[in-house]
Amino acid sequence: MGPVNRNILTLDEFTIQQLRDFPLATGELSGLLRDMGLAAKRVNVEVNKAGLVDILGDLGRVNVQGEDVKKLDIFANNQFMGVLQHGISCAGIGSEELDDYISFDDEVSKNSKYVCLFDPLDGSGNIDVNVSIGTIFSVYRRVTPKGSLAAKEDFLQPGSKQVAAGYIVYGSSTMLVYATRRGVNGFTLDPSIGEFCLSHPNIKCPEFGKIYSVNHGNFFQYSEKVRNYITVCQKKNSGNGGPYTQRYIGSMVSDVHRNLIKGGIFMYPATTDKPKGKLRLLYECNPFAFITEVAGGKATNGEQRILDVQPTALHERSPLFIGSKGMMEEFEMT
Ligand code: P6P
Question: Average pLDDT, stretch 316-326?
Answer without folding.
Answer: 98
